[in-house]
Amino acid sequence: MPTPVYAIALGSNRRGRHGSPEAEIEAALAALGKVVAVSPVLRTAPLGPSKRRFANAVALIESDEDPPALLGRLKAIERGFGRRRGRNWGARVIDLDIVLWSEGMWGERRLTVPHTHFRERGFVLEPLLAVAPDWRDPVTGLRIRQIAHRLARR
């Protein structure tokens, strides 16, 4: 049986101990484990109150962890990079989110897969399109390329 694959969104808009936001993403990729594909890094305008531009990417990783276990590991990586809980949309050294899971959907109080808002976020869809254009969203049944096309038309 093949190992499950996750699409992980990576974002940074603050220098950390590894250097620039791009360097923080590179270091986070090394911490993720079995990375099978990585998108190019995209520079995007911030959402919300932050003034700093973001570096964004998507990685596909293989993992036997269930979504809550992987989420716990991602949060530990964020803490290790110096991320602290604070206001939403603020500057951050690293942000790691589970976007999709090859096993379909997962839903519980603190975690929903696929990510609830990924279909509306070009800074996630554009890198995701580079590594998984034919991956189907288990909620809508649409391929990533179709979702990205619809968002671009808006």
UniProtKB/TrEMBL annotation:
This is 2-amino-4-hydroxy-6-hydroxymethyldihydropteridine pyrophosphokinase. Catalyzes the transfer of pyrophosphate from adenosine triphosphate (ATP) to 6-hydroxymethyl-7,8-dihydropterin, an enzymatic step in folate biosynthesis pathway. It is an enzyme of class 2 (transferase). Keywords: ATP-binding, Folate biosynthesis, Kinase, Nucleotide-binding, Transferase. NCBIfam families: folK. It holds the Pfam family HPPK. Residues 8-133 form the 7,8-dihydro-6-hydroxymethylpterin-pyrophosphokinase domain. The keyword Kinase applies. InterPro entries: Hppk, Hppk_sf. It comes from the Bacteria. Belongs to the HPPK family. Its EC number is 2.7.6.3. The gene is folK. One of its GO terms (biological process) is tetrahydrofolate biosynthetic process. Pathway: Cofactor biosynthesis; tetrahydrofolate biosynthesis; 2-amino-4-hydroxy-6-hydroxymethyl-7,8-dihydropteridine diphosphate from 7,8-dihydroneopterin triphosphate: step 4/4. One of its GO terms (molecular function) is ATP binding.
